[in-house]
Amino acid sequence: MRKTSVIVIGAGPAGLAMSRHLSMRSIDHVLLERGQVANSWRTERWESLRLLTPNWQSRLPGFAYSGPDADGFRTMPETIDFLAGYAESIAAPVETHTKVTSVRAEADGYLVTTDRGSWRSRCVVIASGGCNIASVPGMASALPPGIQSVTPMEYRRPDQLAAGGVLVVGASATGVQLAQEIQASGRQVTLAVGEHVRAPRTYRGRDIKWWMDASGLLDMGLDDIDDVNRVRNVPSMQLVGTPGHERIDLNILQDVGVRIAGRLVGLDAGKAQFSGALANVCKLADLKQNRLLSAIDAWAQANGPEATIAAPERPAPTRVPETPRLTMDLLSEGVRTVLWATGYRPDYSWLDVPVLDRKGRLRHQAGVVDAPGMYVLGLPFLRKRKSTLIDGVGDDARALSDHLANYLAGARAAAA
User: pTM of the full predicted structure?
Assistant: First the structure.
């Protein structure tokens, strides 16, 4: 049995950022990682994926990009090297290949059991991320024999898919990127489109993320939001990171041959059933995109760069078929794969502390979990809009390490 003041579960960006802040406070701790540092980036990403944020935006506590392509987008191997380099630079006390199997509350802290022994600690920081399990709707069980069912966590490249058409379900960042890649491989892709967030890669000569960072949109906090649960479930932006800074949206996908349909609402006897609200969904996405761009224009005008940048512009409205299809007989139309780009959810199967709500979500207030000495990092809009970005976990880790240090001080004073 080993002991430490704080156990951090996970050695991705969030866990490493917390480790840095704990070390700066001389708080003893350990990071328990089921694989290697940045394990999910190593094992659960497709081969062509690049970060959606520019290299300059990978800012971690005491560590930042220093290469020649600040506006480029890292590949997965580059991202892994970046995070591994950060772990080495801060001498993070990582126990690799150590899978947590149980966390239980005790009178003076927590008992954390792993496949390599047990630990006791006063505090636990859950930094295992929000994308541990692919969210696949129950209707997937109704797929007929002969149709492959794949999630983005399993997908690596087009040639692993069965020959034939592909139905991609979900039109957020993952769905549109994979639809484009698979269509380019010669397979006919149909994209089922639900709620999505449309945005240009570049606007008025600068990356959209530059505008969101400079204008403070990414620093929006919980006090700036009326409906926190709503914003925590907003889909990811339709963006792709490429050397040419290309844009991606439904118009561009249709230009290369991808067929679009409404949200997938059912599967019955081998037939896919789509919502008839495609036009309304796309109009809403266009409206929200233009509101974002208008907010950027207003900020630019009020803060100086207006005269030195390109003029305002608006992307063309999303095109939709005059008569969107409502059904599709998958086998007769040659579909042999359904790829479920329908989001992810965290895995708390190892957490034996009563801190989950009826939907299996952690009960927390800005990362302070509803259990003494327990914290969480890396979830959507944990404290700010940028909480799930590499660039955002540092601010959250600093704030939570403040709370954690005060908690430890109080616990020690009470025990004295």
Answer: 0.95
